[in-house]
Design goal:
- Keywords: DNA-binding, Transcription, Transcription regulation, Two-component regulatory system.
- This is Response regulator.
- Its main location: cytoplasm.
- It holds the Pfam family BTAD.
- The protein is α/β, with parallel strands linked by helices.
- It has 3 domains: about 130 residues, Response regulator (Rossmann fold), CATH 3.40.50; about 90 residues, Winged helix-like DNA-binding domain superfamily/Winged helix DNA-binding domain (Arc Repressor Mutant, subunit A); about 110 residues, Serine Threonine Protein Phosphatase 5, Tetratricopeptide repeat (Alpha Horseshoe).
- Helices cover about 55% and strands about 15% of the residues.
- It contains 15 helices and 12 strands.
- The chain is flat, with a radius of gyration of 26 Å.
- The N and C termini lie far apart (about 60 Å).
């Protein structure tokens, strides 16, 4: 049984739609609301897997309500019911599962219910898998979990070896290469012995949590045959691959990648061999920020500023991006904030590089800041 909530500020429309849902035994309407405020007050105690809501509401729009829901409960299926077709693209960008135009016929509603059932079954499998599968976190601090319990590795080198395998699945890796990157300061015989010990510890650890025989050795090469695991790095790579194939990727996909990336790969694990891998992912992250800025500049000023601010964190001396930043702030009337941003840039440029802002940037300051 899929639990559902309905929101529509028109009581008659709400009652009519609730009656239509009675034809579907797999949907249980838990509660209906004509007030967004009341819904948000009760939200912490409400349990539901699907929500049907009108786009045009009073206190907030249905799009804003959906954004709150998907942020707090990403597993919930959001279905819009409305007479306004012009908000469909925004609805799907937020993560809406379906967009139904009133009046809704039975066949169209049946199709929407089928989508909800499919999404629900996927979420059930994910939740079940998360309790039984190995869950590996590569972004921020590396960690591995089994049945929601943190896995303790026998030694730091055992953990490092596992990290290397996670980052290089299904790739033949020569034994001597592993020795070279993990024990560069030891003689070959001792380093080889350490590798065999670390492998023994790692195999035992993986076997104890149900992943035996995923490390294969053949003709001096090791292969980590990627088992069925959850891994944020693999999720990022899959989503970024989808992003790269699209000329105009949706903002929801960009945000999804960025939320996984967090602060970067293995930021608390200083593995020299991982530097190139980290740099590659950083370039991907900057690409996401660039596309995010381009996608939001005309529709969401505050979001565009967030993307620009993140870009400047990576490249604080990039004057072109700084000019974009200042122009947005100035165009929205935030002169004091723009001036503070310029002052911080001017000071950093002088202290770090012994340089002054370009004539173009100074022209902007003279034109807007001195006059205000």
């Amino acid at each position: 049984m899929i639990r559902a909530v309905l929101i529509d500020n028109e009581p008659l429309a709400l009652h009519y739609f609730q009656n239509k849902l009675q034809a579907f035994q797999q949907i249980q309407v838990m509660k209906t609301f004509t007030s967004v405020e009341t819904f948000l007050q009760e939200l912490p105690t409400l349990e539901f897997e699907a929500i049907f809501l009108e786009v045009k509401l009073n206190e907030l729009t249905g799009l804003e309500v959906a954004d709150i829901i998907k942020t707090e409960r990403p597993y919930v299926s959001v279905i819009f019911i409305t007479s306004h077709q012009e908000f469909a693209l925004q609805a799907y960008d937020i993560g809406g599962l379906d967009y139904l135009l009133k009046p809704i016929n039975h066949a169209r509603l049946e199709k929407a219910i089928a989508r909800i059932e499919h999404e629900y079954s996927i979420q059930q499998l994910i939740q079940k898998a998360s309790k039984t599968m190995l869950n590996v976190q590569c972004f921020d601090q590396f960690a591995a979990y089994s049945n929601n319990s943190l896995i303790a590795f026998k030694t730091e080198k055992t953990k490092e070896l596992f990290v290397y395998f996670i980052l290089h699945p299904n790739i033949p890796i020569h034994r001597d290469y592993l020795i070279e990157i993990l024990w560069p300061d030891l003689d070959y015989v001792r380093a080889k012995s350490n590798l065999h010990t670390a492998l023994s510890y790692l195999r035992k650890t993986l076997s104890n949590i149900g992943y035996a025989n995923c490390i294969v050795f053949s003709n001096k090469y090791y292969i980590f045959e990627k088992p069925n695991i959850l891994c944020d790095l693999y999720d990022f790579q899959r989503y970024y691959d989808d992003f790269s194939k699209q000329e105009f990727p949706p903002i929801s996909l960009i945000n999804q990648c960025i939320s996984i990336y967090k602060n970067g790969l293995l930021i608390f694990d200083d593995y020299e061999w991982a530097t190139a891998y980290k740099d590659k992912l950083t370039k991907s992250y900057i690409d996401l920020l660039e596309k995010g800025f381009q996608a939001s500049i005309l529709t969401d000023t505050s979001k565009a500023l967030e993307f620009l601010n993140s870009l400047l964190d990576f490249d604080p001396y990039n004057e072109q991006k700084l000019q974009h930043y200042l122009h947005i702030l100035i165009n929205t009337g935030l002169y004091e904030q723009a001036y503070r941003v310029f002052q911080d840039y001017e000071q950093k440029l002088k202290e770090d590089l012994g340089l002054s802002p370009s004539s173009t940037l100074l022209e902007i300051t003279n034109k807007f800041f001195i006059q205000k």
